[in-house]
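## Example record

The block below lists the input lines for one assembly entry, exactly as stored, with component labels intact.
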Amino acid sequence: MQYLPIFTDLTGKAVLLVGGGHVALRKARALLDAGAVLSVVSHQFETDFHGWASQGRARLLPGDFQPAQISGHWLVIAATDDDAVNAAVHQAATARQVWVNTVDDQDKCEFIFPSIINRAPIQIAISSGGAAPVLVRRLREQLETLLPQHLGPLATLVGKFRKQVQQKLDNFAARRQFYEQVFSSKVVSLLQSGQPQAAEDTLEQMLDGHQPLRGEVFVVGAGPGDPELLTLKALQLMQQADVVVYDYLVSEPIMALVRRDAELICVGKKAGAHSVAQEETNALLVKLALEGKKVCRLKGGDPFIFGRGAEEIEVLLPHQIPFQVVPGITAAAGCAAYAGIPLTHRDYAQAVQFVTGHCQKDGKEPDWHSLSRPNQTLVIYMGLMKSAHIQAQLLAAGRAADTPVAILENGTRPEQRVFTGTLGQLAELIETHQVQSPALLVIGEVVALQAKLAWYGAQEPRAQLTPLHG
Amino acid sequence: MSVLSFFQQAGLNLRQFGNSFGSNLGDYIAGATRRTVPLPAGGETIPGVYLLGAGPGDPELLTRKGERLLRAADVVLYDNLVSPQVLALCRRSCQQIYVGKRAGQHAMPQAQINQLLVEYGRLSVTADKVIVRLKGGDPTIFGRVSEEAEALEQAGLRFAIVPGITSACAASAYSGIALTARGQATAVQFLTAQFADPSRQPDWHNYRYQYGNNPTLVVYMGLNRLNELCLGLMNVGWPGEMPVALLDQVSTDAQQQLTGNLADICARYACHQRGANPLLGPTLIVIGLVVSTPMAVSPALLKVPENLLQVF
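Predicted structure tokens for the full assembly:
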């Protein structure tokens, strides 16, 4: 940042203005508006200066500028039409470490005056650091038309109640929520239509009768895709929510079930193309809940199985935002059921393990040995991109190449596709069939039962366990 | 109070209400307010055999599909792990057959269940009946679904498998223990410890401890073998301080939780069982670092409303 914008309190503070012409006059007005007491050095003074002098708001010092005049002043402004005088003022001020501004000479400015939009007590200062003054002027004009005149009275009114609000509402979130309500209430329209007393009465009533809205977050698992696989609890909460924050794994038919007037925010995630960083999603949930909203965080599958639901809840805790977690049908269970693959089986699989195909942050490899055990079912979430690596690692760790595998694309949805083969063909199967995400990889002896138990949707030809080529 | 506001206060989904009475009453009332959820019409359910997961206990964790099928069911074969509130969805004319089993006390051997299922399943062909085999949790995870499916397949009967919330997922949500958490567990493994048959003992070496790289273990039906389980894991290098949680009757009002570590959980469990409020099962065992950092979920928020039975 080239300049640090600060707002200074000049009330009753002495400011030295060198120059008595019309340029100096412009600066004098701004400074006097801010409550400064002026000392003005010049050979000649515009009429207004004499008026201010008689009111005691300015002291006139006729004659040449003397460096010693700087002492006792907080700010110095050089506003003469003589470059040599301006330079002398600048040099004298900087030597004494007093902030100095030289009108229309940026090199001799230790501070600058920004362009101002005034809706006191609200003030907006704009600067381009001298780079594009015309652009700044246009920007100011646009903002002037954008910001209604009653913004000032509104801020003043709210400021008047600030202490009372603080006494009544003891925490920041509650106060913030109250103000949010005020700013979208008729207090604003009353001020706009010039009824300040009615506005004040309304605000007072609002404060007296204020019942804080409790924001809440529901972290809800939406299941694998089939809208009928939503739980009753999930549906209920989707219907209560003011805002639904969802990601791309949540299918469209499911989104059609959320409350119609709820606000929808997509924080869609796709492997390799995160559209919203997790931190932003976390912050969004906090922000919405603090506004008093019921937020439904709708996630594909189950929130706690590779759903990062935990991270989203952790950020709620410091703000004491109430939350609930509703489990969902995790993709493994949903897709396996629809593909006719039992994940466990007395004879073929006494255990089932869920892993993610995503790399860990630290690049650590999973325990391939444990994943390669026979007689267990391995379900890999988000494993498409790494399928070749997964195949190679499992084979290297001793899993047999003829272990049955299934690739379940769009599981439980009408467009579900199921491909089966052997571990030795895994990557090839994905390549051949151009499998797209979301897809799940199931590896294990139980997959062999799929040919018998498949019941849902269009099935691929049944000769599934024979090699694809030769 | 108007009829409409009464229903709204009771938290009723009006369209559902209408459906459950086979009338358009719900539509009629709902018409006054905004659109409610279009639920699948009960009449559209195709005759067949449905192997249906009822979820872990909380009746609200039943899926919408589960609800539709139960409403349409002519026969329901159910076991112990299914909550009465879920069964209450069935029509009065629905025949409910208990084929219950519970660790250690099989009411009916699996072969007999299969046979019964096939017998009733035939009604789906001969009499266009909707037959539901209702199972606790998820049918594909330790639900022995394949045996029942194979029997149906051999009998040439049409069937479908409808997933349910498996207990591990509910346990996780209702206890705040994330099963996979960045930095603590990148995988989760579900296993069963119902190794009554000595020849079916797990090969413990497959579970050997990998420093900082072990999946979270969730053990189904393992409470009777808690001691063997803890010793088995410690014998293959798992540290005694590894946190363990016993989650009992997950997602029901009676849910309770006992935590400890591999070295002391057996003693804690024994001590707890002598107390006033013993674990009654079904109980899940969760083993892993994730147990030590649960999130502070409020169980009160998840409580099933009193009027739920009517809601359905």
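Chain B has twelve helices and ten strands. The first helix of chain B runs from residue 3 to 9.
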